[in-house]
Amino acid sequence: MDATTFLQFFINGIVLGAIYVLLAIGLSIIFGMIGIVNLTHGILYMLGAYATVTLAPYVGFFPSLIISPLLVALFGMAIEAAFLRRIYKGDPALGLLFTFGLAMFLEQMVRAIWGTQGIPFQIPEALRGAVAAGPIIYSKYRYFIGLCSIVAIGSLWFFLEKTRYGTIIRAGSRDPDMVRMLGISLKPVFTAVFGLGVALAALSGVLASPLAGVEPAMGTNTGTFAFVVVVIGGLGSFWGSVIAGLMVGEVESFCIFFWPPMADASKFALMIAILLLRPRGLLGRQWERFE
Amino acid sequence: MKKGVTRRGFLKAAATTAVAAGASQIFAPAILRAQQQPIKIGHLIPLTGFLSPMGDYASKAGKLAIEEINAAGGVLGRQLETIVDDETNPGVAVQKATKMIQQDKVDFLLGTVSSAVALAVMDVAERYQKIFINSGSNSDEIRGGKCNYYTFCTEASNTQYVKAIGRYLVKNKNYKTFYILTSDYAFGHDLTRVTRRLLGELGGKEIGHDLVPTGTADYSSFILKIRNANPEVVFVNVAGADQTTFLKQYSEFGLKIDVAGGVTDTVLMWNAGKDTAQGVWTLIWWGDLDNPWTKNFTSKYRQKYGFPPENQAWGDYTSINALAQAIKMAGTTDTKKVIEAMEKIKFDGGKGRELYYRTYDHQLIQPMYVVSIKKTGNKDKYDIFNVVTEVPGKDENMEAIAPTKEENPCNMKRG
To answer: Are B150 and B178 found together in one domain?
Structure first.
């Protein structure tokens, strides 16, 4: 493996990882804030892709990059307000069971509305083909995915760390009772956080839609991978998800170079190894709420 | 002397009539039912997973075939009926096929797109002595090493597919270096085995080979490897939705390396779209072939469902019609007699020649089509192929591309 080849596979690993990061961060902040393991995450990712193939012919791909996640986020917030809110106080298994059932229901709804066949969807004209930078020739669209992910992750970080609302979210996820005592209602915050997590899942669905087929089973595997990333990174940890997502991307990319049949299994092997060394994940800390 | 009917006589007559009427009401429908008991076909097809793009067509085509046959009076005065289920995976398919035979009392089994599933269902067919018609699985061993008396293959074998594209490549292209991508399950491994045999004949060199897990969502790293290896052609032996995903991502990287493949399905290219689909491929049947059978089938299917049929629809439609023809010839649904009839029937399957199941391995002997992607002048999004050539040519024996006894020996135990 020479330096150029190494660089190519490295860049590819980052882009693969970027999509995992987007998915995992959404899952992670929902869990961190609300304490619910959202099994509909892969389905909401798929809804992002379906919203795009439906909207893009009318509004174009780039506007739908913003509109689709917003629509899916609204849908997610409606689910939170109508159903999830009622089960926060109950057994944690309730949330698991409810989102599991909802995921199956939504997947079948997608089959009923859009049909069982995959929907062909192309990369927008402006981003087709490859671009050469020195010896590295790489897909324009994948650079674009990398860029979008950096922007999305950067803004999320800024929002959580540097704004007042972000402070409430972080405080609320560590000690909700204290936040309530300070006179802040967490109800709308929960809804907003759920919407935010869902929007990130939908955004990665939009970005993935021209690459893989848009079909009703696309969310199932992806949802599982998002869990793997969150578990590796540490539940509820922002930077944990970022590092773990990129790691999984790199491991997958290089595994295809050296030993392709293991490509799928490599993610899980990595998860097992990390959990043996650090049972709470890479950056997982001890959270009183979840011990 | 009394005239007319006595009270007692009247009662007797009335009672007898009533009993007779009652009896006829009880027994007659049972007799009628026995005559009209439908002939049941268990139809196993992929409705979920990476092969599901084909399953929907198989089920729709099956329904159309059944409707047509029933509208024309059924078979031996009985209606046909299908029981459709998702083939899922080999383990579950065995359970489903067994349940179909034991509980639903099906007379025949039909379907499967996954070769791994077909191999499992064949065993069930043999155990219960029921005919299984394979309408969509390609692995050679289904009609070779693992063949059995009860299994018939309407779908062509990997050898038929690869020899078809091989003959074309030998005549028209002079590729020296190949890179092979293989689906990592029964079908892919078998296809690549046959492809390597072809490489030997072509004098081509395999400069790279990767096994690809089924359902892979991202091919970028594979594509980078191909570009680094820089072969003259990538030979794509991946199946189902994976083929669509690969082609979409291949075009994204703008490689100038040619693409060819042993097997394609129409719907995979429809899903890729004419802008990203590329390469030369072998296809078993195409809805725009110029013959009356095809025109009739395509227009009826299109009328009923609003879009044209593809090759998997052809597979299940043809299989049901062949089965109906064989049952009629046998005059019974008895397994052994129908098998003997299946070995004798000749029929028009929309390929412009008389097709038949070869006796020693039960493989449908048929011509194949080498197709390329139609890039301009397309009527609609379904108009995606140019038929490059029919293999073997019209003047050649159709068996020329079928596996020989040496290449793919089948030693089935008859009856």
So the answer is: no
Q: Which of A227-236, B24-33, B382-391 has the lowest mean pLDDT?
A: B24-33
DSSP state of B76: T
For B350, the domain range is 39-156+290-366
Residues of B in contact with A124 (CB under 8 A): none
Give the A:B interface size as CB pairs under 8 Å.
105
Q: Cα–Cα distance between B323 and B144 in angstroms, integer?
A: 22
CATH class of domain segment(s) A3-290:
mainly alpha
Domain at B251, CATH number: 3.40.50.2300
In chain B, the number of structural domains is 2
pTM of the model: 0.81
Contact (Cβ atoms closer than 8 angstroms) between residue B205 and residue B179: no
Domain range annotation of chain A: 3-290
Q: Average pLDDT over chain B, rounded to whole?
A: 90
Is the separation of the CB atoms in B213 and A84 below 8 Å? no
Find out whether B231 and B206 touch, Cβ atoms under 8 Å.
no
- Model ipTM value: 0.76
Query: Which of B53, B213, B241 lies at the smallest CB-CB distance from A263?
Result: B213
Residues 6+ apart with CB under 8 A from B9: none
Q: Are B89 and B176 in a shared domain?
A: no
> By C-alpha distance, which of A187, A217, A222 is closest to A27?
A222
Checking if the pLDDT of A261 tops 60, the result is: yes
Token pair 């044209």 is found at: B308
Choose among A130, A217, A218: nearest Cβ to B48: A217
pLDDT digits (tens, 9 = 90+) for A21-54: 999 999 998 988 888 889 999 999 999 999 999 9
Length of chain B equals 415
